[in-house]
Write a structure and sequence with these properties.
Helix content: 25-40%
CATH topology of the largest domain: Alpha-D-Glucose-1,6-Bisphosphate, Chain A, domain 4
Structural class: alpha+beta
CATH superfamily of the largest domain: START domain
Number of strands: 13
Distance between the termini: 38 Å
CATH architecture of the largest domain: 2-Layer Sandwich
Shape: globular
Oligomer: single chain
Strand order of the largest sheet: 1-7-6-5-4-3-2
CATH class of the largest domain: Alpha Beta
Length: 256
Amino acid sequence: MGHAWEERDEAVVAASVDEVWAAIATGPGIDSWFMGRNQVDPGPTGSVTTDVGDFVMTGTVTAWDPPKHFAYRSDGPDKRFIAFEYLIEGRDQSSTVLRLVSNGFLPDDDWEAEFEAMTAGGEMYFRTLVAYLDHFAGRFATPLNVTRPPVVDWPTAWAARRTGLGVGDQPAVGDAVRVTVPGVPGLAGLVDFVNSQALGIRTADGLYRFIQGHGGGFVLGHHLFAHPDEKQAGQAWKTWLAGLRHEETTMGSISR
């Protein structure tokens, strides 16, 4: 049967029209707030490729009118597709109105779980884009993506992650955070995003995203503006995730 869907988002951001265009229509810009590594072949017949390691999505540009209008669409089997359309409008004092229309079709009968994950993820990525434009416009980040094996008990896994991050059981936007990750400079910042499947932290030089992956594993999708050694930073976060497994197991045993 499948499911057709559409989401609309809008925000006023503290960035110029050109900075917004660079964020949504260039590879380094998309790397600074979206998933994986991204490459844009510019122009009205161009393409956008997103590579997250075990999954690559390539979309065809369907609208190219810099710096006002950009859209692309990726098609899959059984009429599956996902499309993004950005509309950019300049305002006074270097602010910009950014509108995003996302839509697609999920062909499977059991589309509900994928749609839930896609909706939660879409909300997180749009708010990450807004945070990037409000706080880091004009800078490009090193993207860091780390995944851990499938999670069996998500409530327990999230409780362990919150403990590891030093936030409470019900973190809220604006909560102060100070995280110690061996091998990573001290992280002091604040919670800047929360929903049922993601938690975001913003520091002076990074956007850190902790995500309930649709494939069953925990995903870290960080955007690092200090440009650390990518291999070293990746290993440090992998070790941090592994170190939380004992705590997760202990919490699960207590809850049972």
